[in-house]
Amino acid sequence: MKKMFLGLIIVSAAVLLSCSRSVLTERGSVGGLAAVELRCEDRTEPLGIGQRRPRLGWVLQSERRGEVQTAYQIQAATQKELLISGRADLWDSGKVESGQTFDIVYAGKELESGMDCWWRVRVWDGDGNTSAWSLPARWSMGLLAPSDWRGQWIGLDIQASPAPVPAVFQKARWIWSVPSAAQGVKPGRCFFRKTFELPAGWAVKSAWMWMTADDSFQSFLNGKILRSFAGHQQVYEICIRDYLTSGRNVLAVTAVNDGREPSPAGLLAVVRIETVDGRLLEFVTDETWKVTESPVDDWQSPSLDDGGWEAASAAASFGSAPWVQTRPQVRTLPAARYLRRGFSLLSKPIARARLYASALGVYQVYLNGQRISQEVLSPGWTDYRKRV
User: Is residue 349 reached through a cis peptide bond, with omega within 30 degrees of 0 on the bond before it?
Assistant: First the structure.
């Protein structure tokens, strides 16, 4: 009796396993194989895409390990109802022998501006069994031709006032190894050093240096390189906060006068350090800087003894010839423009409502006080010299 009972259990289990597999096959899910998470242009149901032949993809889901896709079929239609009924009026790929599940290029009828496109996919497994159709997904087309954009560019055109030059610049001098540098000196290089003290206990909030040279410069603070720039039409802004130390600090700069013939040469700089409690430390290029044309090794090191260096010569004041046009890089942003438009709706059911928008910059749109989208920094990065 005992042996017969065990044999009956084993046979029954085998029958149950066989029935279970048969049920899965009859349902068409092939052990759970299904196409899910349908995406167009790597986004879920995107609105207003600009690609006339968008790329489609999906994720495979299965209850069985090692399951593979051997083929797929995509259908696309202009309406959800048409798609569900099998009337794919945009595209029916037919059965495509492929394991590809992403970057499948749409190959149906030509798509038009503003069109809604509904699509679905089914797949075949390694045994040749077909999955059920995926849930319908959708994408919509943007405005594809310039003529589709019937709106006009609008805004608030206000001539922005140039940012004022910080007053400390009026104290700055163009310096070089000789006082006649503004009239022209032979091509060459000068090396400058400036020692200053940062009082102990100062909690630095910000520390900026504005510097330029005719023709180029390379700067160091406490032996560490800061920045290099060429061109004296602009005074360059450099953050020095992380290079400061409490107590003695040394700023070192090499400036180059390029060319083959004598020409004006000079270095101009302004340093402004502010603490969290409002204290200021400011200094500029003047005769307190030291200069040499023949540096030794490690000339930018704070430990170097520069006692033998000469005092720099003032060649011209800020704003004086031949550097009248040189101006600091003072960053300003225009104020945001706020635009509104009211409109009324007819007393008819709304079938669809779309907004197509862009801007030379970023924008946020609100309707009746509610923000329309949760996207940030829209539109995405754009080189406005080429396209919007």
Answer: no
Q: How far apart, in Å, do the first and last CA atoms of the chain sit?
A: 84
Q: What's the pLDDT at 32?
A: 75
Question: In the predicted model, what is the mean pLDDT of the chain?
Answer: 87
Alpha carbon distance 356, 386 (integer Å): 20
Question: Residue 257 has which token pair?
Answer: 């006068």
CA distance 212 to 232: 6
- List residues bridging with 15 in a β-sheet: none
Residues 145 and 386: their CA atoms lie apart, in Å, by 16
Where is 9: in which H helix or E strand?
Answer: helix 2-27
Q: Is the peptide bond before 262 cis (omega within 30 degrees of 0)?
A: no
| Alpha carbon distances (Å) from 274 to 76, 162, 262, 282, 318 | 63, 24, 40, 9, 23
Q: Are 315 and 321 in contact (CB under 8 A)?
A: no
Tokens of 162: 């140039």
Q: Count CA atoms within 13 Å of residue 167 on its CB side.
A: 0
Q: What is the pLDDT of residues 347-388, one digit of tens each?
A: 888 888 888 888 877 888 999 999 988 777 777 666 656 666
What does each C-alpha distance from 337 to 150, 154, 177, 269, 356 come to in angstroms? 21, 10, 50, 36, 18
How many CB atoms within 10 Å of residue 344?
Answer: 4
Query: Tens of pLDDT along 70-126?
Result: 999 999 999 999 999 999 999 999 999 999 999 999 999 999 999 999 999 999 999
pLDDT tens column, 238-297: 999 999 999 999 999 999 999 999 999 999 999 999 999 999 999 999 999 999 998 889
Please report the pLDDT score of residue 372 as a whole number. Answer: 86
- Residue 173 contacts by C-beta under 8 Å, 6 or more apart in sequence? 268, 284, 285, 286, 287, 314, 315, 316, 317, 318
Which residue segments constitute the domains of the chain, with CATH numbers given? 26-144 (2.60.40.10), 167-328 (2.60.120.260)
Question: In what helix (H) or strand (E) does residue 273 lie, and over which residues does it extend?
Answer: strand 266-275
Query: From CA 164, how far away is CA 374, in angstroms rounded?
Result: 37
150-195 confidence digits (pLDDT tens): 888 888 877 666 667 788 899 999 999 999 999 999 999 999 999 9
